[in-house]
Specification:
There is one protein chain. The chain is built from five helices and six strands, in the order E-H-E-E-H-H-E-H-E-E-H. Helix 1 packs parallel to helix 5. It is globular and about 45 Å long. Strand 4, helix 4 and strand 5 form a beta-alpha-beta unit. The chain has 166 residues and is of the alpha/beta class.
């Protein structure tokens, strides 16, 4: 059995125009989440250069711990694609996915994961742990971090600063 090559995490400062455009769409959803008093995380799923699914965090509104933006957008993407495999899709999310969301990303076999701000405490794409690059996985992902990082970080900081003030 041949070994699957490791796909590196991209940290370059210059990101593609498409990555910037799609992360802007995810940031718009994160703002919607913040207005709804949800942790401001937004996600879009892209296939062939088109957004096929969008979601914002809705944990508080739905009273569902699984209602992270990533989980919701992947579930919607599976319905639209008519398959649980999303191998031709890229996930754009404003914050580094947690272990639960990373597990869903692994199982849906995405092509790429692009996120804004890292999460050194609970991120599972290189922050606290790196579940997407476990050596035993049969599938490899391209992982791009830091796209619109300043904006994503500012949204989270503003949200939690306001929470602490109340």
């Amino acid at each position: 059995m041949s070994e699957i090559p490791e796909i590196p995490v991209t940290t370059e400062a210059a990101h593609s125009p498409d990555d910037l455009k799609f992360m802007d769409a995810a940031l718009d959803l994160a703002r919607v989440a913040a207005v709804a008093d949800e942790v401001p995380v937004g996600a879009v799923l892209v296939k062939n250069g088109e957004i096929i699914a969008r979601a914002a965090n809705s944990v508080e509104q739905s009273k569902d711990a699984l209602a992270h933006a990533e989980m919701r957008v992947l579930a919607e993407g599976e319905k639209i694609a008519g398959d649980w495999r999303l191998t031709d899709c890229t996930l754009y999310v404003t914050k580094e996915p947690c272990p639960m969301c990373a597990g869903a990303i692994i199982h849906t076999r995405l092509k790429r994961v692009v996120y804004g701000v890292g999460d050194p405490k609970a991120g599972a794409c290189g922050g606290a742990v790196d579940l997407l690059h476990l050596p035993g996985l049969n599938h490899r992902f391209e992982c791009v971090k830091g796209v619109r990082e300043i904006e994503a970080k500012a949204l989270l900081q503003q949200f939690f600063r306001a929470k602490r003030a109340t």
